[in-house]
Amino acid sequence: DIEKEYPEVVVTTMAYMPTVPPPKTLHPRRNVMIRWIDWGGFKEAPDTTRPLREQPERADSFLAWSAITPAGLAIWDYGLGNASANIPFNPVPVLADDLRFYAEHNVQAMFLQAGEMAPWREDNFKPLYDYIALRLLAQPGLSLDEEVGRFMAAYFGPAAGPMRQIYDDLAARQQELPPLKEVGGNV
Question: Residue 106 needs a FRET pair 20 to 30 A away by CA distance; which of 38, 44, 96, 112 works?
Answer without folding.
Answer: 44
